[in-house]
What does this fold into?
Amino acid sequence: MLELRPNCECCNKDLPPASNEAVICTFECTFCKTCATTILNNKCPNCGGNLVERPIRPENELQNHPASTKRVLKENGCRNIV
It folds into this structure.
């Protein structure tokens, strides 16, 4: 089950469960499309894997399988790690 993390690890932009702006890697590292394309070249800075659009969990499934509320944020953003 995907965690559906609530924010971009680079810029801390909110990425709610229904956001079409969220991209993830195979380890569920989560970024906004802007950071993924302009800073990361669609490559996860943590594992080196590719970033793909995060699926949207149907609203009725969020009740039984809620999205994560734990925010993950790189201390200095992503500009210094690429």
Notes: The chain has two helices and three strands. The longest helix spans residues 33-38. The chain has a mean pLDDT of 94. The chain has one domain: 1-67.
